[in-house]
Amino acid sequence: MSDTNKAFDRLHDELASWRTKIDELRLRGHLAKREVVEKVDELETDFERAFVSSREKMRELKTSAGDEWTAVLLSIESGWAELKKTYDEASSRETKSKD
Predict the structure, then answer these.
(1) Rounded Cα–Cα distance for residues 78 and 94 (Å)
(2) Cα(75)–Cα(25) distance, rounded to whole angstroms?
(3) Residue 95 in this model has a pLDDT that exceeds 70
(4) Which of 37, 42, 79 is nearest to 57 (CA)?
(5) Burial class of residue 57 (count of CB atoms within 10 Å of its CB; 0-12, 13-18, 19+)
(6) How many other C-beta atoms can be found within 10 angstroms of the C-beta atom of residue 36?
(7) What 3-state class would DSSP assign to 80?
(8) Is 1 helix (H, G, I), strand (E, B) or coil?
(9) What per-residue confidence (pLDDT) applies to 66?
(10) Please, are residues 44 and 83 in contact by the beta-carbon 8 Å criterion?
């Protein structure tokens, strides 16, 4: 085999190696994206659950009277705090995932 053919074969092998590295990098990127999507989906579920809970507590408040009203109001405020916490966590994770 001539030196030119050997050099060509070496370059071909090197090019194939780079193709493999690029494909692996692309796969890692897709897997990372999938992981982020799964985390966002999980946070969205938590956020939706907190939202629905708060909405239900608001409905209870509407139909409550007297001493019950104070208890329901405290429950709603707790729900708002939970909703804010969930939203802040989601926002924080989204910001961290972009870094």
Answers:
(1) 24
(2) 49
(3) no
(4) 79
(5) buried
(6) 14
(7) helix
(8) coil
(9) 63
(10) no
**Comparing C-alpha atoms, which of 53, 47, 55, 48 is closest to residue 86?**
47
- What Rg, from alpha-carbon coordinates, does the chain have? 28
What's the Cα-to-Cα distance from 44 to each of 17, 39, 77, 81, 83, rounded to whole Å? 40, 8, 21, 16, 11
| 14-55: pLDDT as tens digits | 888 888 888 888 888 888 888 888 888 888 888 888 888 878
Closest of 51, 58, 60, 56 to residue 81, by C-alpha = 51
Q: How large a percentage of the chain has pLDDT more than 70? A: 86
In 3D space, the residue among 82, 92, 72 whose CA is nearest the CA of residue 51 turns out to be 82
* Annotated domain spans of the chain: 3-98
Q: Which two tokens stand for residue 56?
A: 């239900």
Residue with more model confidence, 66 or 71? 71
